[in-house]
UniProtKB/TrEMBL annotation:
Residues 245-387 form the Acyl-CoA dehydrogenase/oxidase C-terminal domain. GO terms for biological process: fatty acid beta-oxidation. PROSITE patterns: ACYL_COA_DH_1, ACYL_COA_DH_2. PANTHER family: ACYL-COA DEHYDROGENASE, ACYL-COENZYME A OXIDASE. Its cofactor is FAD. It is an enzyme of class 1 (oxidoreductase). This is Glutaryl-CoA dehydrogenase. Residues 21-130 form the Acyl-CoA dehydrogenase/oxidase N-terminal domain. Residues 135-227 form the Acyl-CoA oxidase/dehydrogenase middle domain.
Length: 394
């Protein structure tokens, strides 16, 4: 009897580490995303528009509450579940996964970790219900990798208010977010503080960044702050320096590693399916040695990525994950992802450059995932300092 074909990109069965109930819940989520979200993805990506009907669909899934049980459904899910949820989102569409990640991971995570109890209770319930959408404004026009030391956006306290001046760039959800978590340098003590800024605040202007070749549905914005006044009650009370900001980034950096895995897995799935159905020279191209070589290299990368992100999640759950370990995971997985999507696009030949076959979108989107949350070079220097004790930062 012929052995059953193994079509699962989780070749070593890492999903078996989840509980039965978690696997069942993920299967339901996958079915819902495929049915309700997937049809919105390519048309929105093609037009570089955000499909706002997706917000209501995400809200029905209660997607924003999975990581925050005290404000969601009260069910405590494992750290590993969060990783596999990211895979499912990215297998559907990386742009909509970024929308969700900015809202739930960066914006809500900043409020949960940086706000006091009153602030958490004030903002998070509406954000879990997706009645209010969040954004995260850290990167600046002249400060990406060096924003920690070179942040130019300033905050000046005047009585019970803060006056913000400066500019932020590449802010996902920035054109329509109701609440923007803004990081600015306090003029008084030169330390970074966090603020939650409403979209209608006078002195705040957001402009969509046009002409992107990746994550086209994500509405990235240039945001300018011109004498924008923010009440002290909207300053995140537990943020006192960039070290506090870095705690949020360390967690989301690990999340990007899972995102890279989801992108790579979907590219592999598309390539494998195409290889067994596309015929040339009288047989499926999957029957040729060079095509099988591409597929196996993709699968090898994915399996190696799985091992790293699963272990990182275990360390995170135990409270033992370091920023250097998150940096290594981000640098390694995004590099391997980049290889996988390139091989997948190559396998499709000319069909790999048109949206009809999906792989072109994943090929393009991978470039953004490779770049954000710290470039490969910056994450390499973080790890390099950790293993040598010597800083090579300029």
């Amino acid at each position: 009897m012929a052995k059953k074909v193994n079509t699962d990109p989780d070749f070593f069965g890492y999903a078996g580490l989840l509980s039965d109930s978690e696997r069942a819940e993920l299967a339901d989520i996958r079915d819902y995303l495929q049915r309700e979200i997937a049809p919105l993805a390519n048309p929105a990506w093609d037009k570089a528009e955000f499909p706002f009907e997706a917000i209501e669909k995400f809200a029905k899934l209660r997607l924003a509450g999975y990581q925050y049980p005290e404000y969601g459904d009260g069910v405590q899910r494992s750290e590993l579940f969060a990783g596999f949820l990211s895979i499912e989102l990215n297998r559907i569409d990386p742009s909509l996964a970024v929308f969700s990640g900015v809202h739930t991971g960066l914006a809500m995570g900043s409020i949960l970790g940086g706000g006091d109890q009153e602030q958490r209770d004030r903002w998070l319930p509406d954000m879990v219900a997706m009645n209010k959408i969040g954004a995260f404004a850290l990167t600046e026009p002249e400060g990406g990798s060096d924003v920690a030391g070179g942040m130019r956006t300033t905050a000046r306290r005047e009585g019970d208010e803060w006056v913000l001046n400066g500019a932020k760039r590449w802010i996902g959800n920035g054109t329509f977010a109701d609440l923007i978590v803004v990081w600015a340098r306090d003029e008084a003590d030169d330390q970074v503080k966090g603020f939650v800024v409403g979209k209608d605040t006078p002195g705040v202007t957001a402009t969509k960044i046009e002409g992107k070749i990746a994550l086209r549905s994500v509405q990235n914005a240039d945001i300018v702050f011109d004498q924008a006044r923010i009440p002290e009650s909207d300053r995140l009370q537990n943020i006192n320096s960039f070290r506090d900001t870095a705690k949020v980034l360390a967690r989301t950096r690990g999340g990007v590693a899972w995102q890279a895995l989801g992108v790579a897995m979907r590219a592999y799935e598309l390539a494998r399916e195409y290889a067994v159905n596309r015929e040339q020279f009288g047989k499926p191209i999957g029957g040729f040695q060079m095509i099988q070589d591409l597929l196996v290299k993709m699968l090898g990368n994915i399996t190696a990525m799985f091992g790293m992100v699963v272990r990182l999640n275990q360390l995170t759950a135990a409270g033992e994950a370091g920023a250097d370990q998150a940096a290594l995971a981000k640098a390694f997985t995004t590099t391997r992802m980049r290889e996988v999507v390139a091989w997948a696009r190559e396998l499709f030949g000319g069909n790999g450059i048109v949206l009809d076959y999906d792989v072109a979108k994943f090929f393009a989107d991978a470039e953004a995932v490779y770049s954000f949350e710290g470039s490969r070079e910056m994450n390499t220097l973080i790890v390099g300092k950790s293993i040598t004790g010597l800083s090579a930062f300029a």
